[in-house]
Amino acid sequence: MAKEQEFEWAEAQEIEISVDDLVAAAKQQLQFLAAVDRNRWLYEGPTLQRAIYRYNACWLPLLAKHSESHISKGCLVVPLDCEWIWHCHRLNPVQYKSDC
Length: 100
Hints:
The chain is built from five helices and no strands. By secondary structure, it is mainly alpha-helical.
């Protein structure tokens, strides 16, 4: 597994990112986090559990199917609840890769 991680690290180092790209991504991230903060029901309780269920049962399979399809054009728009769970899931990239 270490060899695979080294290869992935080397591949990632080849990605070119400009300062403008980083600024745009940071602004987009702040807007997303502000939207989550306005919807505090995403933090706990039954609606959070429902969001986790929707992420696992709906969003991940849909994303996988869309990624594999050569017919699909354009990007998918993820619902806020699923996007929040997806965001949290990706905070642990090793587990995320293993789960996906």
